[in-house]
Each structure stands twice: as C-alpha cells, then as structure tokens.
Amino acid sequence: MKMTFRWYGKNDCISLQTIRQIPGMTGVVTAVYDTPVGEVWSNESILELKKLCEENGLEMEVIESVPVHEDIKLGRGDRDRYIENYCENVRRLGKAGVKCICYNFMPVFDWLRTNLHTPAADGSNSLSYNHEEIMGLDPKRLSLPGWDESYTAEELTSLLEAYKDMTHEQLFENLVYFLKKVIPVCVQYGVNMAIHPDDPPWDVFGLPRIISNAADYERLFAAVPENENGITFCTGSLGAGRENDLIKMAYDYAKRGKIHFAHLRNIQYSNELDFREVGHYTACGSLDIFGIVKALVDGGFTGYVRPDHGRNIWGEDAKPGYGLYDRALGATYLNGLFEAVEKLR
C-alpha cells in the first residue's frame, strides 16, 4: 500500500513541503488544472508537476483526474477526437511515470452536496447531503454549493437538456466505447484506469448513474476484462448506498486485483439517503473503516490510498473537504490500521 495525499498544484494552500511531513506519505495525487477539459496536457506541465513533487521527496504516480469530456459521455459530436486526446494524455502520463488515473463517468456533476459547512457538536464542519433539498431544486435554476461557478446557467441548462433522454444502457455503452479505445493504450504504457463510483450512488435530476454498486462493477468488468480496467474504491461514495457491503466488496475486488486506488473516508447516516461527512475513525460514523482496511489487506491490496474528504477543524478555513489537518489525521489513522492489520496477519 502507498499512502498519498490530494494536492491541487501550485495554487493549493497546502504546500508539498507540508504534505511530506505527514508520517508515511509517499506521494501526491494531482493533475494539470490549466488545460480545458478534453484537450491534451502539455509535456511541460506534466513534467513540471513531477519535478516539483520529486524535489519534495514525493512521487507523482496517481493522477486525479483526466476529466472525460461530456461529448464522450453523450456519445455525440467530437467524441472520437476527445477520446484520441485522452489516449494521448495517457501516453504522456505513462512516459512520465504515472501508474494510475482516477476518473469518473458521471454526467454533468461528479459529486453533489447540499451544504459544504455543516456544523458538528465538536465545533468542526463538513460536507453533507440532504436528498429532500436536492429534490426541491429546479434543475434549470440550480444553485449548488461548489458548483455555482462550474457552468453558466445557459451551459448547465443545455447539458441537462442533452441528457434528457439518455438511458442507463446508452451511458454504459458510451463508457464501454471509451474504454475499448483507451485501455489498449493503458496496456502499452503501464497505466491503470480506476473509475470512481457515483457520488451519491443514485440518479439525480434525471441523470443516470451507472457505477454505483457491485452489479455495475461486474457488468463493467465483463464488458472490458483487461486488468488495467479497475476501480477507485471510494468508501464514502459507495457507503452512501446502504445496500453496498463495503467489506465484502473490498475483499472481493482486492483479491481480483481490481482496486487500483482507494479513497478512504467515513460518513454518518441521518436517514436512508441523507448523510454528513465525519472524521475517518470508525467510531465517528456509520462505516467500519477498520473492517474495510482489514478486508483490503486480506484480499492482497497493494495499490494507492488517500485519506478522502476531511472536516474543517482547529479553525482551518480551507477548500471544503480538502483542508490539511483532518486529512493528515486521517492519513495517520489509516497508516496505523494498515500497519496493525498487516503485522497481525
């Protein structure tokens, strides 16, 4: 297992010098952020990121993410050009030593929350999701935290209209079409593709979700069986779906070598659909983080891990979910779990 930390590049308020001081940290998970979605990343940008990481004693073996253009998901317009651009990015990243690309195939929104600063009794605050609030919104007049600046109102309306008649089957077929062109390049350049599950794992605003549970994974692996076609095992996203047996899934997919990357975090259920994000420690929430880590180790998992969304604690006012303090605590806790489970096997 390699412990990593999400880093948003030179504009991140958390420096590489700070990240390297977290015990057990081997590398960062990052991306090129100044290139439009669907276009080719410059070699100069990729190598500059790698150089900055290496100068701070950190690896850059995981990219999160190379975004998938909406034309690819919709199966329209310039999708073949965008797929070829994606393949070129895989080639360039592979040559630079990248081993894993985390990506998602969620239409329009790659995550949804209704509050970025939900207060807790201990004085911390974190992201949360309230389904009733989401359902009460007009999709054509959306104002969502974290998304208000992602699209103009006209762009968002146009995208939602484009997906209006999209079925789960059509979206899945478009994913398979994409992977059948990308995976051969991954095989050639030694790069694993790790698809992130839907967040939350159910349809919202009529947009289909197709990577939400074990049945979805099995269907994907059957359609594209290469080992390079794997998953990002995100406990918070999958855990929001109460039907998902995270411990069984962690063991089964680790055993099959399908978990290339793991996002480990905890959530606290409020009811059947609502949840808030909490500290990583098992007792803080509804997920058995110890059990999940044990299942990963027992299944032979040797991939990359990062502490996922943290709370804002100790007065920190950072990017919601991506402050330093709580994620550093999470990394230390997770490292302790992995060490204990591995030594007691």
Short description:
This protein has one domain: Alpha-Beta Barrel (TIM Barrel). Helix content is 38%, strand content 17%. A hairpin with a 5-residue loop joins strand 10 and strand 11.
Report on this structure.
By secondary structure, the chain is α/β, with parallel strands linked by helices. It has one domain (2-344): TIM Barrel (Alpha-Beta Barrel), CATH 3.20.20.150. It is built from twelve helices and twelve strands. The chain has helices at residues 16-19, 43-55, 70-74, 79-95, 131-135, 153-162, 168-189, 214-223, 235-239, 246-255, 289-298, 325-344; strands spanning 2-6, 25-30, 59-64, 100-103, 115-119, 125-129, 192-195, 229-234, 259-264, 266-269, 275-278, 304-307. The strands form two sheets. The chain has an eight-stranded parallel beta barrel, surrounded by four helices. The chain has a four-stranded antiparallel β-sheet with strand order 5-6-11-10. The longest helix is centred in the middle third of the chain and has 22 residues, at 168-189. The mean pLDDT is 94.
Topology summary:
Blueprint: E1 2-6, H1 16-19, E2 25-30, H2 43-55, E3 59-64, H3 70-74, H4 79-95, E4 100-103, E5 115-119, E6 125-129, H5 131-135, H6 153-162, H7 168-189, E7 192-195, H8 214-223, E8 229-234, H9 235-239, H10 246-255, E9 259-264, E10 266-269, E11 275-278, H11 289-298, E12 304-307, H12 325-344
